[in-house]
Amino acid sequence: MQHAEPTGIIDIGSNSVRLVVYAGPARIPTPIFNEKVLAGLGSGLDRSGTLPTEAREKTLAALRRFRLLLDHMKVKRTLVVATAAVRDAADGADFVLEVERIGLDCEVLSAGEEAELAGEGVLSGIPEADGIVGDLGGGSLELVAVADGRADRGISLPLGVLRLDSSSGGEREARKAVRAALKKSPLKEQARGRAFYMVGGSWRALARIDMLVTDFPLPITQQYRMKPSRAKDLSKLVRAVDPRLLAVAAPQRLAASPAAAMLLELLVDELEPSQLIVSTYGIREGLLYSRLKPSIRKVDPLIEEARDAGGGEHRFGQHGDLLDAWIAPLFDDEPAMRRLRLASCLLADVAWQANPGFRADRGIEIALHGNWVAVNPSGRVIMAQALSANFGRDRLPDERLAQLCKEDQLKRAQIWGSAMRLGQRLSGGVGSVLKRTSLRPVKGAIELGVRRGEEALVGDQVQRRLIRLAELLGCEPVIATM
User: Fold this and answer.
1) Cβ atoms 200, 83 nearer than 8 A
2) What is the rounded CA–CA span in Å between residue 363 and residue 386?
3) Quick check: pTM over 0.90?
4) DSSP per position, 395-437
5) What's the pLDDT at 310?
6) Tens digit of pLDDT for each residue in 227-246?
7) What confidence score (pLDDT) does residue 1 get?
């Protein structure tokens, strides 16, 4: 897919102002710059009705810096949006004029637009999302239903972490506001028994806290899942003074955690979701995704990103699709596993520039901790196992990772990696060799087919890798001339 021109998005929120510059494939652009300033623009808004002077100046100073950086980065397209604080403030329009004097065109999102874009953002990173998206910011909470690749028109409540009081009295007021809003919306009926997608920095902080206390072996928040009952546990936990939490959440986030946890617990009670799923994608990604053509929206973001990430590392050009097709006759994988196998093959050359003794480490690191979307922790571990075997290591370094997958999935991934390793050695990383050879099961054996006159391709190392693959499959190795 052709790369889009770098795009900057500035999100002027109630709690923070952030610039993210995206580049790469249009379907799944990569953040190449990301800076946030916790300005607190929505602090005290309910009392004064206006934007605090200090926060206002801090925000404008950040915007001036962002404007200069964008010029130096030669970013030609920048989208600037403001949310609840500017939308609700009596002097919001005056603030927008100040932003425009800096040289930035600023759009103030309506409550409905903000909710819809949050839903679009979740769909961008989790295309199969089906349930209710909750985007918790500093000044508001947006709720919107998502299903079948579409986000409905949602609702917005003035329940951001800067406005919430986590005391028992504050909880009663928040519950009253949520119930009143849900009475006017079909969301309560739509939510029951479906997933609840958590968007926003305060809820991501709760997820990191949960990972810490449960000793979760893969600290990636995107698509991290929790049982709904965890909301009550987290609500109790963040009220206690525990210095360990500073390792996973900034002091400002910890200060907002009791309110964020209280609201999450309240929503679990009212909506009765089946599970809680974290999305690191929100309105910024939704802005980009909502502008894509339908044909591009349908592209699988994991495959697209793996193809792009692996392409720059290939020695003789991208051949991951060919490698996957070459090993495919050996496997009868279900669609979800076929997809992970293809992603792994697209990354098969990703570590060749590393020291030979560390190639497996690099492959594992990229699979586990890469900036992937549309893949859950289990999928990351499966890809890591395949790449580990591809680079000559049978087992993953942390045994706890195996707990995130089924044993047969890891075994299958190991065999994928062994087949990939064979194909890489046979071909030297050149796609044309894969086109002229074959690998297939034949009556209790696996047959490596080479063309007459090209038998010399099957050197000693190729034979050893073929034997190893046959051992894993429990069959005999055969070399045949085509």
Assistant:
1) no
2) 9
3) yes
4) S-S-GGGGGGS-HHHHHHHHHHHHHHHHHHHHHTT-HHHHHT-
5) 83
6) 999 999 999 999 987 888 98
7) 62
Report how far apart the first and last C-alpha atoms of the chain are (Å, whole number).
35
Query: Do the Cβ atoms of 130 and 146 come closer than 8 Å?
Result: yes
Residue 3 has pLDDT above 80, yes or no: no
Q: According to DSSP H, which parts of 290-319 are helical? A: 294-297, 301-311
Alpha-carbon span 159 to 182, nearest angstrom? 14
Count of CB atoms within 10 A of residue 97's CB?
Answer: 10
Sole residue written with tokens 């053509």: 293
- Per the listing, tokens 């496997």 go with 331
CA distances to 54, 226, 229, 421, 468 from 272, in Å: 40, 13, 10, 47, 50
Rounded distance, CA 66 to CA 55, Å? 16
What are the helix (H) ranges across 215-327?
230-237, 251-271, 283-289, 294-297, 301-311, 320-327
With 0-12 / 13-18 / 19 or more C-beta atoms within 10 angstroms meaning exposed / middle / buried, residue 403 is exposed
Helix ranges restricted to H, 74-135: 84-88, 92-102, 111-125
Pull the structure tokens for residue 177.
Answer: 């506001």
Residue 104 has, within 13 A of its CA and on its CB side, a CA count of: 32
Question: To the nearest 10°, the Cα dihedral for 156, 158, 163, 169?
Answer: -110
Q: Which residues, 6+ apart, have CB-to-CB distance to 395 below 8 Å? A: 388
Q: How many CB atoms lie within 10 A of CB 54?
A: 11
> 355: which strand partners?
none
